[in-house]
Amino acid sequence: MDNADDAYQRASIILEAHAQLSKSEHHPIDVPEACILRLLTDLLHYSHERNKGKNPNDNYYIDFEHLEKWAKEEFIKEREAAVEFHEPLLDPELKDLHQARSDPEFREIEAALNLRQIDETIAIDQRQKGELQRLGPSDELITRHAQENADQEKKARDERIRYAREFLQSREIAQQVDERGKQKASEHAKERET
């Protein structure tokens, strides 16, 4: 998990360096959106050049839209895991997820879940690229793929929330059972004394 301050510092350095390299008339401190837009545009150009002559199913093919989606998901995960006391949750529905992430055992569970979800997303992406190659682009196919991606994203998010909720509930039940056991042991000890 990345530190938000470190990420901010890296981004600041990259944006300033990029503004200098591109001889931008804007400085990231003064006009951050223009500098971010230029950097993203350059990254799109980079992806386009790297993808020339490559099949979308190729391991070295850069799927920028997919990277953008994953980056947003990663950003939300990192921010939710490192919420500062004065910063509200980006998504109140993730309260249980944020609470569960404070436990190392849950972080291991979530890491395994994330790997499985990434594999599922890659499988959907590969299938969609194959359909696009076989059938050719169409508004219907693009709409269907967009809906499939949105459904997969929602399913993954809901699953992470459900895992967190179930983890917290199981911890609460275990604590209650432990407390009852201690209480009964204490009662038995008192009975033996009398």
Task: Furnish the topology, listing elements before pairings.
Blueprint: H1 4-21, H2 32-51, H3 64-81, H4 95-100, H5 104-135, H6 139-193
Helix pairs in contact: 1-2, 5-6
Strand % is under 5%
Low-confidence residue ranges: none
**End-to-end C-alpha gap:** 56 Å
Question: If you compute it from the alpha carbons, what radius of gyration comes out, rounded to the nearest whole angstrom?
Answer: 24 Å
Give me the number of helical elements. 6
Query: What's the total count of β strands?
Result: 0
Order of helices and strands: HHHHHH
Helix content: over 70%
Q: Estimate the mean pLDDT confidence.
A: 83
> How many structural domains are formed by the residues?
2
The general outline is: elongated
Largest sheet: none
Which class do the helix and strand fractions yield?
mainly alpha
In short:
With 194 residues, this protein is mainly alpha-helical. It has helices at 4-21, 32-51, 64-81, 95-100, 104-135, 139-193.
Written description of the protein model:
The structure is a single chain. Helices cover 77% and strands 0% of the residues. It is built from 6 helices and no strands. With 194 residues, the chain is mainly α. The chain is elongated and about 85 Å long. The mean pLDDT is 83.
